Amino acid sequence: MNVRRLVCLAAVLFAVGWLSVATGGQEMTLSSQVIERTLPNGLKVLMVRRPEAPLIRCILAYRVGSVNERPGITGISHFHEHMMFKGTRSMGIKAGTLAKDDEYNRQIDALMDKVAEEESRVKGRDDAKLASLKKQVSELIDKEKKETIVSEEIWGAYQEAGGTGINASTGQEMTQYYVTLPKNAIELYLALEADRMVNPVFREFYSERDVITEERRQSENGAGFFFQEQLNATFYAASPYHWGVVGWMSDISRVTKQEMIEYREKFYRPDNATLVLAGDVDPAKIMPLVTKYFGPIKSKGKSPRVRTEEPSPEYYKRTISPNFKPPYIEKRVLGRAAANPTVTIMFHTPPVWHDDLPALFMLGRVMSARTGKMYMDLVEKQQHATSVNASASNSMYDGAFRVSATGREVQGALTVPLDQIEKELWSYLENAKATPADAQLLQRIKNSVEAQYLQGLAGTGIAGSLASMEVAYRWQHLEDQFKARMAVTPDDMMRVAKTYFTRDNGVTGVMEREK
After folding, report:
1. Which residues are CB-contacts of 124 (< 8 A; sequence separation ≥ 6)?
2. Are strands 44-49 and 175-182 parallel, antiparallel or unpaired?
3. What's the Rg (C-alpha) of the chain?
4. pLDDT of residue 11
């Protein structure tokens, strides 16, 4: 038995042992662990008892991310995440200075409206006027910081209460705010997050906009950033996955505070949020507090969902006719960057709830396994590549299956041309259609997947998994998805390979090293 197998087995035994202790030896399913409640305003609350320590992992997840944006305001979800730490009507501000702070912000907004108007001129822009306006804005921002603002007060409140892991993140489909707190601080948490949901004040908006644009510039310095951005934009022609979470520079440098206010009102509401609490929770005591702080918050209408679907060959067949012959469109992106030379092939796949996703997930794991044929041939034996990878996404709307290989270089030269590596990748893709996966390899992958799943159930880390799946689909799908993955057969993987691995179902990206 090899080391990897021993590690996987040990992880499974640990997780199973923990679950056995927690349930008195009875089998514990995910559904038996999660306590679900929903407030009249639509806020969903998921609670999981983990009483080993007097701590609670707290996540407030919103069903909003870059896919909910539009041209003109791309990147606004990530920007909004930053602004939610700037305070509310009662936090982030010195006592007795609210009226003064409001006046400063009114003046700053009025001046920035004039800046935006002047910058929008195609011809005849008055640079001297712009400089004068921006100087006035800068002076007002400095006064506001000195006279009214209390920087990072929300962070400080959590830290004083013993909070750890305080942070937030924005993705394509979800924005989440999280912290781990002693259980006696749960009322503080609920009070602060309810206040942030309903009463945010976007102080320091324009100075923070500069911070966001600087983040974008730092990303641009990453090796191959522009190539990967354009590859993704080519792959998703219609879907809002077309742009990255950071957004286009032309949008994030010009987005207005009013646009952010309107965006917040659409998406940052109880009926578009899930509160997850995992740890030493007592639902009988916690739910009255949740109702006290979140119950009064109103939800009007519903947050809009993404309409646009990527027009892949499978989309045409589904919307026109199963017998319809889709137009043949093969897309390629060729580029050069100061980065490792890489070949990437991406295929359009269905959303997370689709029955084909378990087989696609397992196929990705099998193809990229270090004991699998693709890795053993390209990396170990032939040494044409330094790494290979294959994986399927778990997307709410339009998914992707990605296969890639990084070319091996010796003394600055590739051992084989990238077009040869591309042909070799296609040979493994075609092999996936025609040849059943090795049964022993598939079983080892299943053992690893099972270990990861059980480990995820064993601690408060389950909070993140619940939040992600509830936002994408429904939390119960975590268990359904796991069972479906365990039932995948070699025939299932060949079937999905034949369905999705076609040259007109995606894009090929070839990135050469810039000399």
Report:
1. none
2. unpaired
3. 26
4. 43
What would the two tokens of residue 70 be? 């539009």
**CA separation for the pair 158, 58 (Å, rounded):** 12
Distance CA 334, CA 509 (A): 6
Per the CB < 8 A criterion, the answer to whether 194 and 82 are in contact is: no
209-249 pLDDT, tens digit each: 999 999 999 999 999 999 999 999 999 999 999 999 999 99
Q: Residue 11 CB: number of other CB atoms within 10 A?
A: 18
Whether the predicted pLDDT of 165 surpasses 70 = yes
Distance between CA atoms of 279 and 295, rounded to whole angstroms? 23
Confidence of residue 25 (pLDDT cuts 50, 70, 90): very low
Q: Who contacts 380 (Cβ-Cβ below 8 Å, separation ≥6)?
A: none
Q: Do residues 79 and 212 make contact, with C-beta atoms less than 8 angstroms apart? A: yes
Neighbours of 277 (CB within 10 A): 29
Tell me how far the alpha carbon of residue 186 is from its chain's centroid.
Answer: 26
Over residues 147-154, the mean pLDDT reads: 95
Structure tokens at 414: 């590739």
Helix axes 357-368, 418-434, angle to 10 degrees: 130
Residue 277's DSSP bridge partners are: 47, 58
- Report the chain's mean pLDDT, rounded to a whole number: 93
> At 386, which amino acid appears?
T
pLDDT of the residue at 26: 40
State the Cα angle at 76 between 74 and 77, rounded to 5°. Answer: 110
Say how far apart CA 396 and CA 404 lie, in whole Å: 23
Q: Which residue type sits at 435?
A: T
**How far, in Å, CA of 6 to CA of 14, rounded?**
12
200 phi/psi in degrees, rounded to 5: -70, 145
CB within 8 Å of 504: residues ≥ 6 apart: 313, 326, 327, 328, 329, 330
CA 390 – CA 367 distance, rounded (Å): 6
Residue 71 scores a pLDDT above 80: yes
Is the separation of the CB atoms in 307 and 492 below 8 Å? no
* Mean pLDDT calculated for residue range 474-486: 97
Q: Of 414, 404, 420, whose CA–CA distance to 342 is shortest? A: 404
Instruction: Identify the structural domains of the chain with CATH numbers, from first to last.
Output: 56-92+150-294 (3.30.830.10), 313-513 (3.30.830.10)
Distances (CA, A) of 245 to 81, 339, 468: 12, 22, 16
Secondary structure letter of residue 322 according to DSSP: T
31 is written with which tokens?
A: 């559904």
Between strands 34-38 and 44-49, the pairing is antiparallel
- What is the band of 28 on the pLDDT scale with cuts at 50, 70, 90? low
Q: Partners of 170 in the beta sheet?
A: 175
Backbone angles phi, psi at 222, to 5 degrees: -70, 145
User: How far from 48 is each of 161, 460, 478, CA to CA, in Å?
Assistant: 22, 8, 14
